[in-house]
Every structure is written in C-alpha cells, then in structure tokens.
Design a protein that fits this description.
3 copies of one chain form a homotrimer.
Chain A (H helix, E strand, L loop, with lengths): L18 H14 L4 E3 L6 H5 L7 H5 L4 H9 L16 H13 L8 H13 L11 H13 L5 H8 L1 E5 L9 H7 L7 E3 L15 H12 L6 H17 L4 E4 L11 H12 L5 H22 L2 E4 L3 E2 L4 H7 L7 E2 L9 H7 L7 E3 L5 H11 L5 E3 L9 H15 L17 H21 L5 H19 L3
Parallel strand pairs in A: 1-2, 2-3, 4-5, 5-8, 8-9
Antiparallel strand pairs in A: 6-7
Helix pairs in contact in A: 1-18, 1-19, 6-18, 10-11, 11-13, 12-13, 13-15, 16-17, 17-18, 18-19
Chain lengths: 472, 472, 472
C-alpha cells in the first residue's frame, strides 16, 4: 500500500492562471475574504441553532441530508439506503460504511463543486490532510468523528466561527416559528436567524392535500377561509406573523412563473370549486397563478422580498420518491419562460417602490435573454445569482458574463447558498467571492473597468447588494 | 474633495491579456481600425444629415433618446421624466440635472457596453479626461456643451469625421423620403445615406390602426387595396419607391419568424374580413405570416435584402408606455424558433439567387442550434451579428464561438450598429473590430488558423461581408 | 504566381496558449494520443471493410459523401451536382473539377472543424504539404489520387493504420448483416466491426411506407405482425439477430424524445388502424412514442445500449431532397425537451441495472439544464458527447464546462465520431483527446483537480467510459 496522497487547499484556487489577472483577482478577493457571511436564503433547520445541537457523526453531517452528495453516488451505482437516505436506523458501522462509499467514489466527483466544497470542509474545518480513498476512509472518518464529539463544534459555535451574520431558514406558513422566537429572545445570541415564508403548497389547489392545508392555515391565522378573500387574508396574516419573527422574504417555487390575474369573482368561483374538490386541472393552475399574483401584491404592502425558484420536475423518479421521499436528488430542471409569465405582476407592480423580486433559474438561457433585460429596466427586479446545479465555478462565470453586460452589478442579488449542508456554507460563500474576483479581474485586465471600481464592486456584491435587495 | 480620477482609453482595451495573443490581436485590429464605417442598419433620423443639424445640449444628444442609457438609470431608481423622456420642455437646468444623474449613476454602468461606448465618446469625441462623478458632472457637461456649440460638430461634419461611408436609416413605408432625396440630389454630399423599408405595422392586421395604415399605403402607392392582391401591389410599389431612393434592404420585427403561406383565396378572405374588422386573432396572425412570406417573395423580385429582428415583447410595462411612449427601454426579449418558422419561405425561395436574408436574434440559443446550421446550407441565409442587448463584448465573443464552427465567417452579416445614438457609432464599430480581432487571434494562437488568413478575414468582415450581404 | 503557402500541423494545435496550462495539456494528451480508437457509433459502410475496398478518387473519398463538406460549399454558391452529389456519372475530369471547387472555397471553411479535420487528413494521411488553393488544387488532387491507387491504402489496411479497435456501423433492422457476418467469421480480421440496430422508420406509423416496412420486418423476423404484440416480437427478434452479429447498441433519432406509454389495448387499436391507413397524425405520433418506450423496455431485456439523437428537421429543403435525396446537409436542428419526454421510460426503467441510455443533442441548452442533472441521478443515463454540428472545438469545450460540474466525467459517453467520412476518424478522435486534455488542464491549473487525477480521467474518457457505457 502506497503512502496516502496529501490533500491541501491552494491559496490561488479558482483564480485565473495568467499572472497579471491572478494578481488583480488576489487583491480583490483579499479585500472581501474575511467579511461576514450574509445568507438570505438557506435550508438549515432553525432548531439546530436554537438548541445549539452537537452533530452525531460524519455521515449524518456530510452525506445523508445532502442530495448533491448522494445523487452522484446513486448515479454511479450506490443504493441510497447505504447512504442512510430514508432511514433512521443507521448504526455506527453503517455510518462508517457509508462514509467509505463516499471515499471510494471520490473520483466520481472530480470537476464538481461538491468535490470543491468537500475538500474545503475537510481541510479547513476538519483538519484532514489526506485525499479520500478506500485506504484513507477510516482515518478521515475518525478525524471527523472526533471533531463532531468536541464540544467546541456545536451549531452556534460554528455560526460564530463561520462568521454568519444573517441566516434565513425556509419555513412552512403554519409553523409557529418557536425556534426563531427563542433565538430572537435570547440575549446571548447576537447573530440574526430569521424565517422565510414558503407558501408553495398552499397555493396549489391541484394538490390532493390542498383542502387540508387551507384548513391548517385558517387555524394558524384565525381567519375564516370560506371564500377567496378570507383565504387571502389568512395568507396575509401569516406573512405578518413571519415578519414579526424577523422574516424579510417569501420564497416561491412553482412549475412556471405565470402571474396571470383572474377576475376576482371568477377566481372566487374556482376557489370554492376547488374547496369542493370540483376544480379542473386547468382551473387549479389558473387559480395558482392568480394566487401568486396576490403574493406579489401583498409584497408591495408588507415589503417582504420575493425569491422565485421555478421550473423543476420534483421527484422525477416516482419509485425513488415512494421509497425515500422528497429532496433526495431526483429533482430535474426544465426550461422556463420569464418575460411573458411575470408580465401581469410587473404591469401591476413592477415600478412599485416597495417591491423587490429576485429571479433564480436553472435554465441558463434566460440569463441574457430575459432576466437581465428585465432587471435592467424594472427597479423591482433583480437577477438571482446561480442556484443549485448552477452554483458551480464555470456556471457562475457564465452567469456574470451573461448578465453584467445588460444589467451591470447593481441589479444582481448577492450570493445565495440555498443549502441544507451547514458546514458547506463558508466554502460556498468563499467560492462565490473568488469567482466574482475572477470576473472583475478579467474586466480590469481587459481595460473595461478600473481596479478601484472593481474593488468597490466586490465589496458591494458581498455586503451591499444582499442588504439592499433583501432590505436588511 | 479629492482630485478627480482621470479617464483615458487604453490602446489595448478588450484585447486578450496573454502577450502572444494580444500581439496578434493588435496586428489584426491595426489592419482594419481606420477603414470606413459601413452601417447597413441604424436608427439615425435622416433629417439630421439632410439638414446638417447642430445638436443642442449634452442630455438630448447622449441621454434622452438612448434607451440603453435611460433604462439602466430607471432600473436604479431614476424617473424617466428627469432624463427628459417623453418631454419637450427641458430647460438648460433640467438638462444639466439629467446629466448629473448620469454621472451619479456612473457606477451602475460598470461592466456594460453602454459604459464602454460612453467612455469612448467622452474621450475621443468630446475630449473629456476625468471620470464622471457628482464632482465632475458640471465640468463634463460644460465641455460637451461647448463642443455641441462649435460649428465644427454638425451632423454632416461628424459623418466625415467618423468616416461613415454608408448609413441606412429605418423608415415608414409611407414616408416620402424627402430627406433621402435631398441627400441623393446634393452633389456636395458624397456619403451614402439610404432608407430601409420597415413595413411591420402594415403587416399586422390585429392592430387597432391597421385599416387606417392600409388606407395610408393605398394613398402613398396609388394602388387600390380592395383585395389582397391590391394590397400586395401597394407594398411592392412602396418597396420600389424605396429602392429608387437607394434602399437596399427591408427590416422586419414581428413576434415570431413564422412564414407559413396560406392558400391565396383563403388569405384574401381573411384580408377582407380584417378590413371589415371581422378577423379573429388567429386569422390576423395567420395573415401576418402569409404577408411575411410575400415579403420574401417580393425580395426575390426586387432584390431588397431582408433583415429579421424577431421575438421581443414591445412596451412590456403598459403604464410606462402610456406615459412615455415606445422605445424607452421597456422592450423585453423572448425565445425564438427559426428552423420551422422560416421553413415555408426557405422551401419556396431558399436557393433563389436574388434572395439574401439576415437573421438577428436576442435569443443566443439559436446561434449554434438553428441560425448557423441554416446559414451553413442555404445560400440566401446569413447569421446577423449580435444585436441590441447582445451587442456587447462577451456576447459578441459567444456569437463568434457559436457560429463560426458551423458557418465559418462568410455566412455572417458584418457589423450592424442598429443605433439611434449617433455619436456612439464609431465606438460601436471599433468595438466590433477589436472583438473580431480577439476571436481571430485566439484561432491563430491555437493553431486553428494561419495569421495571413486571419488578416484577410478581418478585412472581409469589415468591408466585404457587408457589401456582399447587403449588395452594396 | 507566388510560391504556394505551406501546410503543416502544429504539435500544440488546439492547446491553450498559456505556457503552464499548455504543459499540462501536452502531458495529458501525450498519455492517450496513441491509444486505439473505439468508435461505438459511426456511419461507415460495413461492406468497405468486408470487401477491403480500395477507394477510387479524392472527390468520392473526401467530398461527395460528406455533407459537412458539401453543405458549406452549397451555402457559398456551389451546385451540389458539381460536387457529385446525387450522381453516378462523375468522370475523372468532373472529380478533379469538384476537388478544385473545394480548394477554391478553402477560405470558406476557416474556423470550422471540417477545415481542421481536412488539414489533418491532408498532412497526416496523404502527405500534402501545401495549402489548398486554386493554384495547388491539381497538385493536391494528384497526390491523393496516387495515394488512393496505392494498394497499401485499402479499407482494412486503414483500419490497422488508424488503429480502430471497435467500429460500429448503423444498419437497417431488416439488413441480413452479411458483411458483419463475413467479418466476424474471418479469422484474419482481428478488429471488431459490429452493426447498430436503427429502427427509426419502423417506429413511425405516419410514414407513407410504414405498412411496407412492417411487412418487411415480419418477413425478416418470421413473426406475424397481425397485432401490436406480434410487431413488438418482430422488433425484438431483429434486435436479437443484431446482437448475434455483435451489436451492442440501438440508435434512435425521432423528432422528439417523448416516451409516453399508451394503454396496451389502446396502442393495439391504433396499430391496427395505422395498418389500415386509418390512424390520425396524433395517433401515429402517440404510437411512435409508445414504441420507443418499448425499445427501452426491450433494452432492459436484451441489454442493447440506446443512443438517442433527437430533434432534427430532416430534409429541410424539399426541392433539394427531391433532387438529391437525404443526407446532403439540409438537416436542421430544433430545440429539444428531455426531462419530461424521457420521464415515462425512466419512471419504468431508470434504475434498471441492464439499461444504458446515452443522450446526444444539437441543442446545447439541455446540457446543463436537463441532461447533466439526469445523468447525475439515474444510473442508466449518460450524457453523450457533442454530436454533429457540435463536434467542434469550442462546442466541445462548452459541453465539458456545462456537464462536468453536475455530472462529473463518469456519466459521459466517451467520444463518438458519428461519421461516414472514414479518413476523418483519426483526426476526430485526436481532436477530442486534445480538447479533453485542454479542459482537464484548465481544472489542474485552477487547482480544481490534481494532475494525477486528470491523467487517470483522460485515459478513462478514451478507454474506460466507452467500454463501460457501451458494454464492450
């Protein structure tokens, strides 16, 4: 058996190889690398922070809950069970075996951001110095297990260590937000952890459980939902509740972005039919689009920022969904249309001073064609930075190249990590800062931007844009 | 207050940073940078040239009429009124205040081609040497105002100075083209300024004013329009009138590219129904597509080159349209389909020796997928260079990378500025020449093209392709 | 007349110009450049190999059958007749004249992969040392004619010289595969030449000749086709026949990728109606999609790998088709949808251990949006490398950049030449190896991948991935 191959992080990773460009990128990155993290949209469970949890083992920390990690092994022949997905019965041996699978499949991740983030975490957080492989799997597992067992590494201590200033979670409209309340009321906790209003399923009358959901929100809000105005009041009430718990945004992920408003009487008719289970599929879709229009309308009233994450086939493989549930890596993007879909809402509210609306996409074609042109005209519209599969070095570079020429930098959202992998947050934000430094350095050496301006812009992307766009 | 930051143009701007590639790019650029400008498609008012106008002030010259400039400030919170849009009552103070807004928002343009062109104009045309900012706004305004007031800077003198050999304007089919006639008949004026036949609205039976437009063209042409053949004759007549005034092309910007031909009897039936206001929306669309097919047919007869600029939602924000009118930066692109849409016309005329058809797009996805494959087969089809939002350094590079491999250089149109910002024309053409030099230099240093061939190609792109494609 | 310009191949062609990146690319390329060629999908006629044919002349070898070559001249004004397309009566003079046309139009190919491959062939295979031009046309023609006449250059000898280990042809389901049988039974021939099952037209009930085709396959298989189960048996029978002759894959190129399964009784009803010529256009399409679902089902049983090449308008210009037939360069791509289209088949068989399915596309938008996400989840799905118009240096780089971050390297197909231009095969595979070296070198110098891993990956792309994906 040969000596293990070492693992380290190159200080110039992701930077351009050309020396003069790299020097500019280094300086730009250096000026922002230690700024606090603002994470206006994530999927970290608030209970982790509220209860200051300690993590139990490497696999449940790094593998099982992270569908970016599990999907790639699944594609390469690993059963999701063996990674702990959908299970509550993982023994210490199971956990070690799952971690070994990751190390055996390390090569499958070559060239992916998952690999990049994991390497960052292994070295920077866990102090690992050898490349994952079948030979080093146990040694690495033991190192992380020791770290996990160290009382210095609880959720709140990591928030401090990662210097996360703001963290927004994603929450059900009926959630009582007790963890957020506890954090808000805890004088010893000075970081900001706030909820995000995510009403998707309540806006989908086609769902089998929709009537139940409407009843739930009626109960949670204390509003009667006998007709559509009542239901809209219930939603508005819960938005206010979220605001009172610190929320600054609502999040929306439907299959399309359509915001066509119905005549209110017609909308109420469909609502009542849907409550009786008698709405057609087309009517249910029409009502959903009408409800999304109303979410935009409510945003002009309560000021919550809308983030839009459309156009994904959720649970593409039904047998996998039935066995393992949602969020296991089987969500597959489709193309999206923005210009016509958002037009009804923008006709109504596009220049409203209270409205901020951030459009994310997994369909790169709309970056230059639709999102940047919209963000370059409407004061309410911002181009969301690359999301999910596109939160990756080359895709981020394509985004900046596609959007900047039409919308500049001031019409983009600032970085969003959108992750449930808590330990990846610093690596993700660091990657974003490095890549923005690359893009700006390119503009500088091509004499398209002065370096003093580039320096101002990179700080703005890390600090000012998220604060402005999300009204922090 | 600190000293103002200086503004200058780097001779290597836009060139690649790698020394050997830059050297090739420099040589290629050097060989074409002083060639005359051929502008086969612009929006400059012909009256400016005919009357040899002097411009009145910096704001009405550089800001108010240029929606590239105004839209970005609008997105960043400036009212269009404050930029003079839709107003005829701007005082000198208003104009100065508007220019100050531009200087305050200078940072919002970072990374955009608008910034690039304006910097070129400020330095090269107006002799400005300080970066725009609140502190320098007045100083710059005064400098440009002085330049504007100098009798050396009238429209015709700028045509000379910019060395614009050919300038095509865009004109209504009923226009009497008096300015073009005046220019044609003026022996002292040796540059070529010609009209372009732009019949869009006459081909849209769905428009509320269509019947009026048909009557107008009947009057202008002297043709009876009692039936569709008469209307087609009227259009053909006006095309001839334009040709007689020097036109070499017609321009078409409908929502889609469809050229499906109807049975002529059925088309006539719809025409008559539309004249009675009794055509359905679908019938109106079908008739429009049939009329576009006939424009292609007429092109094979009179030889006018068709330029196609499809797939834009015009006046996306109705309240803005109602207050300020069209062309204020609120036009938003959508996706476009080319292969099937153009097929009917190409089945009929795709190999006709008299037909040249140039396809422009704001949807980059069709560059490699549809336009280049079509241009690489049909002798009549040319790939139009990047248009509007895509007339930008990175987008132009993507265009060349996407199109060249399938269609080479001889199937592309040569540069089109498509601008109403007269003073930006030299900067735009210069930018295009620099970027073509970059693309060719890349091919040379990657040993995909010999430098002597690259030199021949860049001259061809500036001179031969526009002459060939537009039959100059 | 000036001296002819020399033609040679730079050893660093296609490599990045940056010295440190180029060094890595060189090392990676060096490690794979002499590995045998695996060509799992081509259009070489098997009879050439079986009969060990000698080629007759430069034009019929390099121009007439290669629509990549002819389409570009056609676009630039050359009649296809003059290139021998659709003719059997080309004299030696005609052939020489056609070759002269290629040399005259040499400049039109600048920047295209066709030019790149032809240069490789001219220098490496035919020993030409001057650039094609009107002046050098005859000299080059004579050199290639001499080479063609040399007994050392027959099809089998070229297979040896090109070191083609595996070559899959594309064949009609009713073909008796006599040439493949002859090759299989010839002990002196040690290379592997196998058929590919290409049933497209048999699955298109809308075709005018479909009933005849169904009868043909009934005859070839000995299965009654009185109902749909019989027809499916006939297809399964022919797949087995192909397998027995060495086939490892089936190839499918329909207008869309839809795999919606019908109720079997309903499918049978449509089948019977189609056999009577009484199926509607929609029914015919629905039945085709159902039949494609069954091809996937059969693949899980017999193990043939499916390659999917969708979304092309075949014979876009009917007059050209009527005069010259198919495959003359007039096929034009359209956009494609993958996520929803393949879902029915993937719901049924996506995790089946026997299924491998490779998706090719001419629509680059689905690389990052749909294909990579699917290949990064389903163990059966692989991203096919760039095909046809996209088998070109810049497009290949875009492919790797778009796919790797989501699917890594192990979910891609390995290189496919898909060509009927036999002599271009080595140049195409060499180009692919160079470009993969470039991509990997970029990752190495950006510190995203260690060089030892990159070296392992490039070997895997050339050898292991094709063997794994195509089950060789």
């Amino acid at each position: 058996m040969s000596a293990p191959i070492s693992l380290s992080l190159h200080p110039d990773r992701l930077f351009p190889v050309d020396a003069s460009t790299r020097d500019v990128a280094r300086r730009l990155y250096e000026s922002v690398k230690d700024l606090p993290i603002i994470s206006p949209h994530s999927h970290v469970p608030p209970q982790w922070i509220a209860d200051d949890v300690a993590f139990s083992d490497p696999t449940s920390l790094l593998i099982t809950p992270d569908h970016y990690v599990t999907r790639m092994m699944h594609a390469n022949g690993v059963r999701l069970d063996d990674l702990g997905v959908g299970r509550n019965d993982m023994t210490a041996d199971d956990s070690r075996a799952a971690f070994r699978l990751l190390c055996e499949h390390w090569g499958d991740y070559a060239g992916t951001p998952v690999r990049y983030w994991l390497e960052n975490e292994l070295v920077d957080i866990f102090g690992v110095t050898v490349r994952p492989s079948p030979e080093t799997a146990d040694q690495i597992y033991d190192a992380i297990q020791a770290w996990v067992g160290d009382g210095a590494n609880t959720a709140r201590k990591l928030m401090e260590r990662f210097d996360i200033a703001v963290l927004a979670t994603t929450d059900d409209p009926c959630d009582n937000l007790e963890h957020h309340a506890a954090l808000r009321d805890d004088a010893t906790f000075t970081r900001r952890v706030v909820p995000t209003f995510r009403p998707d399923k309540y806006l989908e009358p086609a769902r089998a459980d929709w009537n139940q959901l409407v009843d739930d929100i009626s109960r949670a809000s204390g509003e009667a939902v006998d007709d559509l105005p009542g239901f809209l009041n219930a939603l508005a009430n819960r938005r206010e509740y979220f605001k009172a718990h610190g929320a600054f945004s609502s999040d929306h992920s439907h299959f399309d972005l359509d915001t066509t408003r119905l005549d209110e009487a017609e909308a109420n008719r469909i609502y009542l039919a849907a409550r009786r289970g008698a709405a057609s599929a087309d009517e249910a879709t029409a009502l959903r689009r009408h409800l999304v229009w109303h979410q935009v309308r409510m945003a002009t009233e309560d000021g919550l920022v809308l983030t839009l994450h459309p156009a994904v086939v959720r649970n593409h493989h039904t047998p996998t969904f039935e066995k393992y549930g949602a969020d296991v890596g089987a969500d597959i993007p489709v193309s999206v249309e923005v210009s016509r879909a958002l037009r009804p809402a923008l006709e109504s509210f596009g220049t409203h001073p209270n409205l901020n609306l951030v459009i994310f996409t997994l369909d790169e074609t709309v970056f230059s064609r639709e999102i940047a042109p919209l963000a370059g005209f409407y004061p309410s519209v911002f181009a969301g930075v690359p999301w999910w599969f596109l939160d990756a070095p080359d895709a981020i570079k394509r985004f900046r190249r596609a959007v900047t020429e039409t919308a500049g930098f001031t019409r983009t959202s600032g970085f969003i990590d959108d992750t449930r992998a808590f330990c990846s947050i610093p690596a993700r934000h660091d990657m974003s800062r490095r890549l923005d430094a690359c893009h700006l350095a390119d503009l500088v050496v091509e004499h398209r931007l002065a370096e003093d301006e580039a320096a101002q812009i990179i700080t703005s992307l890390v600090v000012d844009q998220p604060r402005k766009v999300f009204k922090l």
